[in-house]
Write a structure and sequence with these properties.
The chain is an alpha+beta fold.
Length: 466
């Protein structure tokens, strides 16, 4: 018969095992969520939906066309669009552009006013010597008014040379059925067909991988102690891959409030658990970081401070923390299996089904730290906004995991080379995509193509030394 002391010890060990299993489960949940939103978004401009409820918003669609393939002799279309139009009876406006770069070849009436009655037809005047097109149209019935969103006029441009230009609204007059002017705001358009490069995102990827590698040397022992030296098995990794594919496939059908609650729970749990470990299990200290995160998100989510700065700061923090934790429970074998599975999933879900793009767009309005947005360098400025590129936290985790496991397998020098190789590969892919599209591409593929050659060199060197 077991003594009371031995029974108590068995119970205590069992409790510790349950706590470690829960710790691992929460981290696995976070990893699944991070990789569910991990495609790279290569460029975007000022938010087209940013508008005031009391005013009509005039915006060109596409708002920014950054496309090296639109060289001389190419034609492209833009729509001058009214968003949230109310009491709109007609309009007059002039749009200007750089006549040395593009010329307007045609102007056609859009569908917004016509959907509310007969119109006078589009009146237009194009002057490509100066660089402007003047357009006007109104509803014929004195009482008719448009109350919706849609295209006012479609403009076709012919590219003459390479460069950049603003397509700008000027002399705008929107009026109601009494001829009274209506209030409006404008978002001017932007065209750029120069050859573009960006060094900011590759450098960010490199710095995250390097930070994870060196921090891992200091934190791995303590983190693994709290998991009882557990390591993922091949079956665990396959389960993770299947779970990620499932989450991506169903996230579009999940209400946004449920998505928000799941993400906030996962992020807060990660902050609490890591803080708990490194504060020597003092819960009253560990509760401060997740509480601060939740309060900042709740009260500052709709401010520039959050959307331009804090969301990226927390994104970097979460990316590095998950790398440090998961890097300790992967092995070289499970990393190879995981890398193959996640890259294949990324290719299918981004390029074939598009499910990951839909999932990314589904969560974009929640302003959660699911990706890191970095301003393009050299800069592209549109309407006072510096165009950025976004990369999902899952891709940062993937790069950091590969770098850590390379260090363990081949040493520091090869790990540093692998981090540099991943950044260079990302730069090469991103340069091509930035100029030729598409706007979304599997980040894991860009990363692993830079890692594989260094890993093969490491394997060959290791086998040669035996």
């Amino acid at each position: 018969m077991a003594s009371p002391v031995s029974s108590w010890l068995i119970g205590e060990e069992r409790l510790q095992e349950l706590q470690k299993a829960r710790f691992l489960g929460i981290i696995a949940l976070l990893a699944i969520i991070l990789f569910s939103i991990s495609s790279v978004r290569l460029a975007h401009s000022a938010n087209e939906s940013d508008q005031k409820a009391q005013e009509i918003t005039l915006a060109l669609k596409p708002l920014a066309l950054v496309d090296y393939s639109s060289g001389p002799s190419v034609y492209f279309d833009v729509n001058a669009t009214a968003l949230n139009a109310t009491y709109l009876h007609g309009f007059r406006m002039r749009l200007t552009y750089d006549a040395k770069l593009i010329e307007c070849s045609a102007a056609q009436e859009g569908g917004l006013l016509r959907s509310f009655g007969n119109t006078t037809g589009l009146g237009s005047r194009i002057d490509n010597a100066v660089g402007y097109v003047y357009v006007s149209v109104n509803l014929t019935s004195p009482e008719a008014m448009a109350n919706s969103s849609g295209s006012l006029v479609k403009l076709t441009f012919h590219v003459l040379s390479r460069g950049e230009t603003v397509i700008q609204f000027e002399e705008v007059n929107l009026y109601d059925s009494n001829g009274a002017p209506l209030s409006y705001v404008t978002h001017n358009g932007y065209f750029n067909n120069r050859f573009l490069v960006d060094v900011a995102m590759p450098l960010t990827l490199l710095l995250v991988a390097l930070a994870a590698m060196f921090l891992n040397r200091r934190t791995e022992a303590k983190l693994k102690t709290n998991l009882g030296e557990r390591e993922l098995t091949a079956r665990d990794v396959i389960f993770l891959g299947a779970a990620m594919a499932t989450v991506v496939s169903i996230i579009v059908f999940v209400p946004q409030m449920a998505i928000m609650a799941l993400f906030l729970f996962s992020y807060s749990s990660l902050l609490f658990l890591i803080s708990y470990v490194f504060s020597n299990h003092r819960w009253y200290v560990a509760i401060v970081p997740p509480a601060a995160f939740l309060l900042l998100y709740i009260f500052l989510r709709d401010t520039t401070l959050w959307s331009s700065y804090l969301v990226n700061v927390y994104g970097l923090v979460f990316a590095i923390l998950i790398i440090l934790y998961m890097g300790g429970i992967f092995t070289w074998k499970t990393t190879l299996i995981f890398g193959g599975i996640i890259t294949a999933l990324d290719i299918v879900l981004v390029l074939v089904t598009g499910a990951m793009i839909t999932a990314f767009e589904q969560t974009d309005s929640l302003k959660l730290p699911v990706a890191i947005q970095v301003p393009i360098i050299p800069p592209i400025i549109v309407e006072g906004h510096w165009i950025t590129r976004g990369l999902g936290l899952g891709d940062f985790f993937f790069a950091g995991l590969l770098a850590i496991q390379t260090w363990k397998r081949f040493g520091r020098k090869t790990a540093l080379l692998s981090a540099a190789g991943m950044a260079i590969s990302f730069f090469a892919f991103a340069t091509f995509l930035l100029n030729y599209g598409p706007p979304y591409f599997p980040g894991t593929l860009m990363i692993i193509c830079g890692w594989i050659p260094i890993a093969l060199i490491g394997l060959r060197s290791r086998s040669g030394n035996r």
